[in-house]
Amino acid sequence: MSSDSDALLASARATFDRVREDYHGEVRGHVKRIRRKGRSAATRLAVIAAADAAILLAATVIGFVIPLGLFGFLAVMLLMLAVTLAIALAPSARPLSEAKLREVDIRALPAQTERWLEAQRPALPAPAARLVDRITQRLDALSPQLAGVEANTAEAAEVRNLVGEQLPAFVTDYGKVPTSLRGVERNGRTPDGELVSGLQLIEREIAQMTERLAQGDLDSLQTRGRYLEMKYRDGNGDGDS
Hints:
- The mean pLDDT is 79.
- By secondary structure, the protein is mainly alpha-helical.
- It has helices at 2-65, 69-89, 98-101, 109-120, 126-145, 154-176, 191-213, 215-232.
- The chain folds into two domains: 2-89; 98-224.
- Helix content is 77%, strand content 0%.
């Protein structure tokens, strides 16, 4: 009985940890989307301010040569209003297409794939959408590790294959399945289930890629820690660097 109770307790804890991780991932993903929208709004405001300032400067310079008068003043105001509305209402830049992702510089690939995934997110079932949040976190962690990776290395090719090709192609294939068939079982599995299972594998593989790329830094940190421990343990170090 004791072993059965321990097994049930362990299973309950694992389920709780999974739910908590999904919840935290969803919250972090939501916060990230809000921040992204905030940065986008701030950028638009900066562009509007710069454009209006340029119009005012040009009008001032022209006014020194040719008096603008009331109609000229109104024309400047209308031009500023038109420019402000045009910038404020302009559609956001679209994510790159699946084909273009294959051509992106390796260092920019995680961020561009993340934008592409966010655009697909509304069409995905809830479990897959939560996995997208976790994958974007993995991509955020992967991005700094690619700063020192050359484009023609095996590591870059591995990242490009998974992040720039397999992941987008997998989600695109799911999107081609008719909505009415996504929950229908076929060969023991549904398309929705296939999507979730595949995204789980991709998330784990991205995490492992990040760990492999960071191995040198991890080794360096461990070596430095051992050096400090040997040099300064028990206060025996002489304080020299």
